[in-house]
Amino acid sequence: MREVGIESAIIDVHAHCFTSKALAGDVAQQLERLRGRGIGHVAVAGMVNDRFDAEQIWGLVPDWVDNRGDALFDEASDLLAHARHSKGAIVPLLDTRYLWGDVQATLARYVEEGFCGIKGIYLPDSGNDLGVKGVPDTFGITVAQYRRREWEIFSFAERNNLTVLYHIDARRYGDIVTALLADFPKVRINIPHFGIGRKAFAPFLDRYPNVFTDFSGLLSHMRENPASYRDFIVEYQDRVCFGSDAILYKVAGSLQYLDALCDLGLPAEVLRKVCVENPRRLMGNALHGGID
Fold first, then answer.
1. For residue 39, what are the β-bridge partners?
2. Contact present, 195 and 169 (Cβ < 8 Å)
3. Who's near 185: CB < 8 A, 6+ residues apart?
4. Residues 197-230 pLDDT 10s
5. Where are the alpha helices (DSSP H) in the chain?
6. Residues 159-172: what's their mean pLDDT?
7. What average pLDDT does the chain have?
8. Topology adopted by domain 10-283
9. How far is 258 from 200, CA to CA, in rounded Å?
């Protein structure tokens, strides 16, 4: 068994819910497995939906998702219940892909209910890396209206010191990344999957100190080309965070990523930065406890 040697201090900054309250016992067992490997916190994104039906809702969700939670992906109640039961191990993030209406008031309400951060995803069209329908087509709005919504979300995050996990393809939408970072320089933002293109994304890490990233979704690449990924992590050792994209009912994904990270042969101090120090700087005051 591969170990990092950091007992109950590792933070997985990127996971998803898709899990109902009825599975609370299973989730508790999953968290126990994580604790056994030193993972004490998991930032879990849960979607909210108050307007779309069963046919429409799948437009923005990859069809490979095995959803074991709310049929319409209105996950707020389930995720907050799991977070309460976890005694701080689960850090709930609000997935905003279906958010509409009074964005500021709606976000304020969810934060009041217990959400500690925001998960966003930039989907202006169907040519995205997830292969899902774009938000404008789903909502029947223009791209300009969609972008205004994203700016409202970031504005709220900056005013309320909330971390943002934001899925965006730096190769296709580098101009949007640049504009967001220029307008919201204080927001701590995790752009996962190494920006879906390390060459396109690296300049953002070079220029913006508030930008972090994680290697979720890259497991096969890490195993096929370990030297290249080791070099990238070492170069950006103060920005890379441990993240897995795991689903709450199946945390084996998190453990697989931990194994792959350990297999890269990184120096101990770099491992500590990636697993503990960088995630703590990214998450800030969203971290209240851990798996006791």
1. 10
2. yes
3. 208, 210
4. 999 999 999 999 999 999 999 999 999 999 999 9
5. 24-36, 54-57, 76-85, 103-113, 135-139, 143-159, 174-183, 198-207, 219-224, 226-235, 252-263, 268-272, 278-283
6. 97
7. 93
8. TIM Barrel (3.20.20)
9. 25
